[in-house]
Structures are given as structure tokens and as C-alpha cells.
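Session log. Operator J.P. requested a structure for one protein chain; no other inputs attached. Running the standard single-chain path with C-alpha cell output.
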Amino acid sequence: MSAIVLSHRWLGIAFCLLFAMWFASGIVMHFVPFPSLTEAERFAGLMPVDRGERRISVADAVATSGIVDATRVRLIQRSDGAVYIVSGPSHQRAIRAADGNDASVKSADVALAIAQAHARQREINASHATIVGRADYDQWSVPNGFDRHRPLFRVALGDAAGTEVYVSSSTGEIALDTTRSERGWNLVGSVLHWIYPTILRSNWTLWDRVVWTLSLLALIAAVLGAVLGIVRVRIGKRQISPYRGWHALHHLIGLAATVFVLTWIFSGWLSMDHGRLFSRGQLTPTEAGVVNAAPDWREAPSLDRQPISPAAREAEWFAFNGHVYRRDRVALGGQTLSRRGDALRDGLAGFLDVHEIQALTGRLTVGCGPPSVLPDSDDYPALSTMPGAPVYRSRCDGDLWFDIDGADGNVLQRLDPSRRAYRWLYSALHTLDFPVLLAHPRLRDVVIVSLCTLGLTFSVTGIVIGWRRLRSSLAT
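Structure written below.
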């Protein structure tokens, strides 16, 4: 028992500040997530596609890009003209639609003009916009999802909200936006909670190992404390705790918060699992070979001949089950969809149908039943990139599920038993996204804030006790 006492004491002293930081920053994160460019913001910033502008064919754009495994091509209108963005599983490249030349952004002036055009579309005053940086990494662009866009031009729009947007040097798209308020709150929210300083997070492997190790040691400290707290309970006496003062507060609050603290620290550690104990939900190489198979882009010219919708702000050609489709994004929640030889389907509700989804999943694995549309209240939620578009779930032999976006054919989730268990052990325990709480968001807010406040109070008692112990040890 003495070994447990000593281990808990010194681990507690080492991690009490970290515990307090996690609980306090967790409250902030619940209300102010890490900055990102939402789909609504991205789409609102797109200019209408100029249907009269001369452009090369999609097949020529793919050939010019040199991306042999290209699976998607998007046409967007930039301030300097129409651009094809050709994408494959591991690479993307921007091609000028008028002549097939490279359309990557090397000039700060071009990046500034793109940012100002984006702001005008979103009705943001950018009359005082200026370039404030060009770098591979800063505090808000460290996530791996920006790797394809580095380096990024950072443009301060000069509006009242202090908005800054990041322009991709590879495609010229707006990849991220932040506001002064988001940046401020996230410095005491996500940056603290995830231990996310730029110098550490820019090296993903190092950050992963550091945070995983710290989380594991914190979990061990919490488990040892729970064992001691339960063992020291006085049963059948007036006083539950044998301690006095701050030690008694620490003991009693710890008993009240034991279940939450243990499950929250455990699930926080699991957030850094990254395939160590559970599957990552990624396609196997064989499955990826089916999903990411490069199509015959000679199908695309027949779709090119169909005029782009007058209201389109983006056109995308994508490969799905060996065929090329084109979708014209005419509204945030609306698109037209066509396939070689087909007419545009269903006006603003053109999505892939059940038969097309089943044709793909039947090639991924055996025993896949008819796909069903995923309800909003599903225990394993998945959302389309386009609001209101259906997500299809196909259940296959071996208890394997695939969730596929009906808007653009992307595989959103691969759920095997391991990944479904991870959903409950991490997401449900850490963010409390249990269906009953998701159905009552205000109640969920109250529960999360109350529990994190309880955990923070518990941590403060540990800080006081730890400081007194350190001061006493140093004095002797």
C-alpha cells in the first residue's frame, strides 16, 4: 500500500496542474472548437463559375497535371480566372482552365486578390486586407489536413471581427479562416487541452508520443487515487474520510468524481490511440484500390458537353465505381448530378442512389446487403459534406459497415467491431455524445460544464495539497 501511496502522491504532484488545465480547457472547447473553414463558409466564398470562359477539357487537365491516379477534378472560379483542381489519393495540383498552365499561387498579390474576392462573396469588408505571413506552419494551420496546401498565405482582412484567411499555395483556395475571438478562446481551450504549441505539433510523431505518454501517466495517477480513495473510506462511521482540511476535500470530491474522472482521463488517452489498440477506420489497401481506382477520363468529355448549371459555384467530376460523374454545386444544400449518357437527375436533389452504392460495396467485400439511408439519430453518426444529402450505410459479412456520401461518393466511415467499440469508449465517454444527450443539447451543455467544474475543483484541491507537500519537502 505504501508504494501506491507514494506513486499517487508524486504522480499527483506532477500532474495536478495538467488535470486542472484539461478540465478548464475542456469547458472552453465545448463551446469554441478549433478554428476551421466550415463548408457553409467555403461555399459562400465561391464565385459563380463563368460558363462563357474558354477552357480545356477535363481529360486534358488530368493529363496536364501528371497525376496518374487522379480520382477527382473540381472547377472553381478564382479572381484570376477559372481553375481545375486535379486530386488523387496522395497529391493535388491546380491547372489553369484556359490554357492548362500551372495555377499554383506563388505571388502574394495573387493570394491577396483571392482572399479579397472570397471576402466580398461572404460580404466581409476587406478593404484594408493585407498579407501578414507565408509559412508552412503556424498555430492554427498545424493539423495534418493542411499538408496538401502548404505553404499557406495568411491574409488579415482588416474587418471588425479580426478575420484572417489562409490561401493555399498549391490550389489558390481558401483553406482556413479564423477570427480574433476564436484565436483568443482557443489559446485557453484547444491549444492547452491538446498540448498544441506549434513547435511541438508541427512534428506529428513527436507530439503523438509526448501526449500519449503524458495521458497514460495521468491515467495511472487517477487509477491509483481511485484505489486509495475507496480503500480509505470509513464505513459505518460518521465521518466518511479519515482526513482533515484540504485532504478531506480532496478525498470526498474525488469519491464523488471518481467515475467521471476515470472515464474522462481514460477516453482522453484513447483520443491518442491512433491504431495502437483499436482499428483506425481506414480502408484496407484492397478496399482503397477499389474506391480510389482511377477512371477512364475519356468519359468526361461527354459530360463536358452538357452545359454547367447557370447557378453553379463549383463543378466536380469524380470517379465512382469505375464511372465518371459530374456534380454542379448550385447551392449549399443543392446540386445537379450526371453520369455519362445520363440526363441531369432530380434537379436540386441529384444524389447517388441505392443501386449505385450497392454496386460499389459489392466490390469492396462479400455479403453486403442493400444500403439504407442513415438517420440523423443514428448511434454511429456520419454527415455528408453537403447539408441534407443522404449518407448510405451498407452492412456486409464479417460485421463490417461502410458509410458512403450520397453527394460525392466518398467513403465517410469504415466501421468494424473494433471501430464501433472505439466510438463508445472514446467519443461517448469523452464528449458525452450519447444519443439521449444529443437529443437535448442544452441538457448536455449543463452536464458537461457541471462535470468538468467538479473535476476542476477536485484538481484544485490536489494543487493545494501538492504545493504544501513540495514546500514541506523543500523546507526539510
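Operator note: The radius of gyration is 26 Å.
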